[in-house]
Amino acid sequence: MAGRRLIQGLTSPWSVGFSAFGLAYGGYHVWDSTQSGSKYDLNEDLSGKTYIVTGSTSGIGQATVEELAKRNARVIMACRNREKCVQVRRDIVLNTRNKQVYCRQCDLEDFDSIRTFVQKLSKGKFELDRIDGVVHNAAMMQSERKVNKDGIEKTIATNHLGSFLLTGLLLDKLLAQNIPVRIVFLNSNIIDRKCDLKLTDLNAEHEKKFDGYEVYKHSKLASALFSKELSDRLTGSNISVLVADPGRTKSNLSAQMDGQTFFLSRWLLKVVSFGMGERRTEKAVRPVLYALCDPQTQGENGLFFDRERQLQPWNDVILDADKREKLWNVSVSWSRLGEHLKKVKYLEN
């Protein structure tokens, strides 16, 4: 009698349901642990250090700010949407008990906004006495071609030209410091997938049909070319330039793409991403922290780290010095670096 009741209990819908849930939950965590990569934790106290993080109100940018704040750093959240930044900043302060987290508006597609951001950090009540690192995390992808107020396609403006201008305007300040500085760019191995520099169509205006993913790939290639060229030009200085690939990560980067607008395709994309090893941001941030703060990468320059913090080789396009120089010259012109730099220096004087 007791045995029959035991069997009935084990085969009841509730028991079966809980067992299935347990198996699914356990399976998910086993899978998640395999996709998280090798264990890593940054064991550094960053008290007294200051970092700037772009695109810091969500995804890896937000995770980077929180991890830095946990380790007592002062962090400047360079954000497009100040209202959202204030909300995110409040949560980070509550979680880390570090009030040295600040919101500063900086829209990377708007070159005037970038100049104003740098001006505020250079003089006045928001002036920074030191900058130990800059994380170029902000990125965008869009399904339709849109341009900024200067007529530049927004993906290349945000993902490359904005970072180029921000770095250029900060460079004198960084070089004048007697402390080591690390500039970290986030990138991806998609730049190795049938990708080449299209200087004749950098503005994505000559294609028959706008392909947001291809334009995104092209913008990340441009960013990688800039990273490598910058590292070469800064060799021997107090500034190191490193690139980190966080791997496939859960984020809202592709939220504007066509596949994300319909609930069924959005659900299918999530399933596919999960199957391909999409990682949570708290795991994906590891190579970024490694490049930015780890003692092992101190003094290293011009290196590209993959999601496992292993060296990733530069492809032939990136190693083409002629292409890097041509892109540099175009970027100087399109971002109006000289004009903005004069305005920053005028304010400082």
In short:
With 349 residues, this protein is an alpha/beta fold. It has helices at residues 2-10, 13-35, 59-70, 82-96, 111-122, 154-175, 212-233, 263-275, 281-284, 286-293, 321-335, 337-348, and strands at 50-54, 74-79, 101-105, 133-136, 181-186, 239-244, 303-305. It has a single domain, classed as 3-Layer(aba) Sandwich (Rossmann fold).
Q: Could you give the order of strands across the largest sheet?
A: 3-2-1-4-5-6-7
The helix content, as a percent range, equals 40-55%
CATH topology: Rossmann fold
SSE topology string: HHEHEHEHEHEHEHHHEHH
Largest sheet: 7 strands, parallel
Could you describe the 3D structure shown?
This protein has 349 residues and is α/β, with parallel strands linked by helices. The chain has a single domain (47-348), classed as NAD(P)-binding Rossmann-like Domain (Rossmann fold, 3-Layer(aba) Sandwich). The chain has twelve helices and seven strands. It has helices at residues 2-10, 13-35, 59-70, 82-96, 111-122, 154-175, 212-233, 263-275, 281-284, 286-293, 321-335, 337-348, and strands at 50-54, 74-79, 101-105, 133-136, 181-186, 239-244, 303-305. A seven-stranded parallel sheet has the order 3-2-1-4-5-6-7, sandwiched between helices. α7 (212-233) links the parallel β5 (181-186) and β6. α3 packs parallel to α4 (82-96). It is globular and about 80 Å long. 41% of the residues are buried.
